[in-house]
Design goal:
The chain has about 325 residues and is of the alpha+beta class. Helix 2 packs across helix 7 and helix 4 runs parallel beside helix 5.
Amino acid sequence: MTAVTAREQDWYPAFAGQTAAAIENNERKGCTNTTILGIQADTGKNPATRGEWVALQEDIQEGIAAGNVKATWSNLEFRLVSVTKAELIIKESSRESRVVIASCPSQHFNTVMQLAQGKEYVDATFGREDDLAGKVMKGSGHAPQPVVSLEKSVSQMSMNPATEGKSVSYDDHDGDNVSYTVENGQLIQRVNGQKRLGNDSTTGIVTQLHFKPPRCIRDQFFGGGHAPKRLLKDIAKLADSVNVPHNIVYDGCTIKFDDGDGDHIKFSLEGGELIQYVNGKRMLGNGSTTGKISHLQFYPPRTIRDQYGGGGLVPARLLDDIKIMAETAGVQHNIP
């Protein structure tokens, strides 16, 4: 199968759209090195895989040049490699160096899926006929449909109809009017009606939001200011809808984990207060059932206790989130 005939297949637009959406998502997260992997087929096998790989590279490059794929060509690296080399590349994936496995012959499907399983910075956009993604991409199995443009495929994959066009607007502490709007699957920031970021970029495309309690929100270039507390949840939901990473907390946010004793712990922001639950009930170290925390004491490497000494081990990955919750509620702490 050639690149031309690959594009004529009814599954190709969805396949290309899924891959382009994954690339765009990495770009929005600030990734400057995305490796798009194709897995080599055994000699003489899977001509479709070879054809789709060539077509995909051409269409992604043309899509970026036309502005239909929101990514930077120089940030991408296409590599057609063996399963052995793919394993090494997947192991080295990181926040700054992400991987999209776009093409894989059926004889290597299970092996590659196992390699990618549980890897936070790896996406797989390929599918085979007998898995769910493959069935969706193959369609009904009738004659090939007319080829859909990559522009249409990308917009269908990356836009969230539920939030597209929605906006949050307010006046910050400097008197500037700030707004966040979901446009074409991206979060756009405007200051006094003009697209603008902290580095004076006029694209307005937000790829990350930084929250500093009690209510300061800044973009990836640290432009921003104080937002009304009542709007923190709305801003967070807009960011979530287009996969923009953030650390915004607001009334109703919770953190759940099991401590070293096997108890189920939950920290919850309720009415501006930090409430602790133990096994589903409000509880503090002295047996108080108010659950209201006024102080958190941190003991390295990862123990946290309330003002009465109740507490235990906390997953290290949650320490920053608990710290932000405490500061939002005005709770004293010594969490680093």
